[in-house]
Amino acid sequence: MERQIFYEGLTKFEENFISKRDSFYVATVGENGFPYIQHRGGPKGFLKVLDKNRLGFIDFSGNMQYISLGNLATNNKVALFLVDYPNRKRLKIYVKAEIAELKDNPVLFESLNLVDYKFRPELMMIFYVEA
């Protein structure tokens, strides 16, 4: 019989993998039932591990497309897909997403802040790990 091991939250291996990524994909579902996948990129480590059950990043001004945010207004279930292309490894994480306003969460902003990154922050996105 094969032995299965279950962890609550992220493992150290997963935390390390996440901290080395400079991009990931966010999959949401709209009210119409169709999935939408959006690429998010930034400096290495911009997606931060806050603790073993939470990830977060600062969303910066970009292409002015707010489809993912609109989808999250009606369904906060999200799939994250992180890829290490050179080593042919990937990590898929099911999360629930929450939008956090910059002005309302200065402590969270400081924990997600990127030193010397020159883009204008718009909001913060927090992911609660489900699986």
From TrEMBL:
<dbReference type="Pfam" id="PF01243">
    <property type="entry name" value="PNPOx_N"/>
</dbReference>
<feature type="domain" description="Pyridoxamine 5'-phosphate oxidase N-terminal">
    <location>
        <begin position="15"/>
        <end position="101"/>
    </location>
</feature>
<protein>
    <recommendedName>
        <fullName>Pyridoxamine 5'-phosphate oxidase N-terminal domain-containing protein</fullName>
    </recommendedName>
</protein>
<dbReference type="InterPro" id="IPR012349">
    <property type="entry name" value="Split_barrel_FMN-bd"/>
</dbReference>
<dbReference type="InterPro" id="IPR011576">
    <property type="entry name" value="Pyridox_Oxase_N"/>
</dbReference>
